[in-house]
Amino acid sequence: MPRPPVADRSLALEWEEVPTDHARAAHTVIVSDFHLADAEPPHPYNPLWKRFKRPKLFLDRSFRRFIEHLQSLSPEPIELVLNGDIFDFDSVMVFPRKPSFKVSWLERKRGLFAEEEKSRFKMKVMLDDHAVWVKALRDFVLGGNRLIFIIGNHDMELHWPSVQRDVVDAMELPEEARDRVRFCEWFYVSNGDTLIEHGNQFDEYSMCADPVHPLIRKGSRVFVRLPFGNLANKFLLNGMGLFNPHVESSYIKKDLREYLVFFFKYVARTQPFIFLSWFWGSMVTAIYSIGEGMLPALRDPLMVEARVDVISEKANVSPRVTRSLRALHVHPAYFNPFKIMRELWLDRGILFLLLLGASFWMFSTVNVFVQISAWWFLVPLFLLLPPFVFYARTVESEVYKMQENAERQVPISARIAGVKRVVQGHTHRERHVWVEGVEVLNTGTWSPAYRDVECTQPYGTKCFGWIRPSDSGVREAGIYEWNDPGVSQIPSRTGD
């Protein structure tokens, strides 16, 4: 395959030689949302801080047993699809002691940015901390099986070709086995019968604005453009370590009462000024996401069609299918600043500050003419508080609604790809339903998700999708739960 001309080799994504041995598969296993990150060191004065990232809670050994069990069940080679959010670049907080690159004060507070050299450093940290997991994948590939990585929203820095090579290099595979590992931008079609996609492209808070051209330039520096949700995790949740980013109910509470209970039970003793951390982190997230989101995608005009061709060949589809699937994607949230402010609670925070200011202005005006007690400041405050509370209670997070949108788009995605089955991840909720005649599976999450700060109540189950031959000659699919060391099927549920 000839290499096309490149106008600026330093900025263009690299051309890849794509083998064609991935078109057929008898057994396909799909897992998603591992959220591998760096190991969190102990905090003697705050033992619950990011407890979910402690090495003792790593899933690596369980995953190794899972891989070994799969191979014992199948006499044929297995195609393992790691369907997005396998790595969590946004949660990595370490940086080199003697960096070869500049580290800003913001990066020291909230983690390195998505530049190529920094992404490679973060990947190395994650691979080193999860050596058992990497070894399990190496043994799996050396056993004659295939491995597919699909890029999700939290591992968007896998778009750097050098980062992809670092993953394969860490497996220490011989040259003849390296072709059995493939990286796909946002989707993959297995055996011509199943479309596998992470699903974040239907979530306006978590989507990659342009997965064909994911890079942007700021001055002389080149970055992977991160979505609003990633930046919120980086700038906001990285500074609020008692909230688990893998469980939305950890940081999206039903009402003010739940926030107050959580504050006085856990936060008051260790982070009493969390309001300032929230306000500062939210402002940085809003400014950074809107500013970065408005930048044009970095694309080489001589590589546009080549990029689509490579993405299509890796995904086992024609360029027409790739373009059509790309057209289904929703509009990024950063084009609606008010929506971003509402998700960050900045609208309510600013309204409350205005309420305090208005109350102080009324009190000061009256006090000029009549000397009154300072307690009178509370009168206008209490008068203005009910409308504020009413507004605050009517605002609901749209995160859940955005995730449901992915399922509504399934019938169209299936028609475009020419399949009757679609597998997704992203929502951390395992499902097996039918939508307008299309079989839909969601493989849930293997992330370190817990309902409580002490990490004693696991959230969700470690599930995987398995598509395998049937007596009728057509592959059948199911969602299964890994019980370590046993496997039991989750009953399928019929949807609309």
Descriptive notes:
- The structure is a single chain.
- Residues 1-20 and 492-496 have low confidence and may be disordered.
- The chain has 16 helices and 14 strands.
- A hairpin with a 4-residue loop joins strand 13 (476-482) and strand 14 (487-489).
- It is of the alpha/beta class.
- The strands form 3 sheets. The protein has a 7-stranded mixed sheet with strand order 4-3-2-1-12-13-14, with helices on both faces. Strands 5-6-9-11-10 form a 5-stranded mixed sheet, covered by helices on one side.
Q: What is the rounded Rg?
A: 24 Å
Helix content: 25-40%
Strand order, largest beta sheet: 4-3-2-1-12-13-14
Distance between the termini: 45 Å
Mean pLDDT over the full residue set:
87
Helix-strand pattern? EHEHHHEHEEEEEHHHHHHHHHHHEEEEEE
Unreliable residue stretches: 1-20, 492-496
The number of helical runs is 16
Please report which band the strand proportion falls in: under 5%, 5-15%, 15-25%, 25-35%, 35-45% or over 45%. 5-15%
Shape: globular
Structural class by helix and strand composition? alpha/beta
Largest sheet: 7 strands, mixed
